Amino acid sequence: MTAVCHYGEGTTGIVNVNELEPISAHELPCPDRFPGSFEAARAEAFLKSKLLVVAIVSGRADASAGFGLFRPRARGKPVREEAMQYMALASQEVRVMLGENAVFWRGKPTELKDTQFRQLAPVDMLPSLAISVPLAADAMTVILAIPGAISRPLRMFTVEGTFNRQLEQAEIRSQPLAETLDSILEGLEAMEVHRQVMLARQNDEDVQLRQAQDQEYAEGLARDQAAAANAAAAAAVPQQEAVRPAPVQQGSEPVRQVADPADEARRALAEEFLREGPSPTKADPVRLVLKLPTGERVERTFESQDPLARVRRWATCLD
What we know:
Layout: E1 2-6, E2 12-16, H1 38-47, E3 51-56, H2 60-63, H3 80-89, H4 92-101, E4 102-107, H5 114-120, E5 128-136, E6 139-147, E7 158-159, H6 176-243, H7 261-276, E8 285-291, E9 297-303, H8 308-317
Parallel strand pairs: 3-4
Antiparallel strand pairs: 1-2, 1-7, 3-5, 5-6, 8-9
Helix pairs in contact: 3-6, 4-6, 7-8
């Protein structure tokens, strides 16, 4: 049995099947695989703002001594679809793209919850390659879920007689590599759209937050100004009450003011002179006339024998 091999540099060769060596799944290179659980991988992708690429396999190809398009007949049929997925993910292009832009997790259905498995493998066909965008540490949206075999041309080695049938062509019309790359690119585009939407939403929320803060500040300032005005008005009322004289209550006795002693003396002298009255006839009368500051004239007649002190007292009572 011979095999037609298509090498990566573009050359083709025919070799004997006995010269081919079985390849274990663990021997193939693969993207940097997240070592933890699926939930931890989803949280990691959200924190790093990366895609989450999930490969769900049955584990049969893993358990086989060799797999791919060739393995010993005693082992039974090869797990063709899983072998092709392993080889697609082993491509350097895929590994570089996933390493820079995604968190890669590979596991079995038993490692997932039922709801997670239905999301990532919606048609219940293994293997399944899912591209998802994390929305939160515990939430995601699946952009693509590629179940089972992938049908696009792929330059890869083929073995005549594999699967107990002869291949009429030297190429298998199946290329998981090309579709895997296309799926990752589509996921990256969806991730970028998601980022733009989240950025626009964040900007809108920031604008609304600033407007709410400005309105709250203006309302608080108006309240403070009103409170200050009310406090100033309340402080001015006691001062006005202190200046305003207290009203005299009806029936209460009037408050007696303390008189000046000098005023009392002048009043007593004036009353004394008024009681005496003018003398109709006086011996040797002397008339004194005083002009007050108001312009009025006051006249008094004294007798010649009156002492000068009496004249002074009369003048004093007129002040």
